[in-house]
Amino acid sequence: MPIDPVIEPALLPRLYQGTFAVPAEAIDENGHVNNVVYVQWMQEFATRHSDALGLTRAKYVELGGCWVVRAHRITYLQPALPGDRLTVATWVATMDRFRSLRRYRFVRSADGQMLATAETDWVYVTIAAGRPSTIPAAVANAFVVLPEADEP
């Protein structure tokens, strides 16, 4: 589900943030944003953050590796509803030899209410073999790890 967020590039490289309106197709039979859509938004914002730092799909292919998801965790606090504008922030919380933990915050822009928190455990793998690989310095150094004390 593509979105067209308004990005705040001044926050890069530590934090990637954007604001967008909840599209009608994100709403499920319960009248709020479907849980699967949050996962799609997480993927979208992670990709856009990487792209904004110059780590595009083409760059990863050149490096011979890519990120794959090991696990997603989402805590839903309040529903996102039709017409809501959301501000989503994402950042890298940890970066080790093979893995990186990325966190997300979903906030309703109108009243500042936190709607959900989430994180994705990513593993860096070789494209050819699909096996875990050491994260190249070009990748690890592009992302600034945001310490927990500085998280939004």
Automatic annotation (TrEMBL):
UniProt xrefs under SUPFAM superfamilies = Thioesterase/thiol ester dehydrase-isomerase (SSF54637)
User: What InterPro entries is this protein classified in?
Assistant: 4-hydroxybenzoyl-CoA_TE, HotDog_dom_sf
Domain of life assignment: Bacteria
Keywords attached to this Swiss-Prot or TrEMBL record, sorted alphabetically, are:
Hydrolase
Q: Which PANTHER family match?
A: 4-HYDROXYBENZOYL-COA THIOESTERASE FAMILY MEMBER, ACYL-COA THIOESTER HYDROLASE YBGC
Q: What is this protein called?
A: Thioesterase
This chain's source organism reads Geotalea uraniireducens
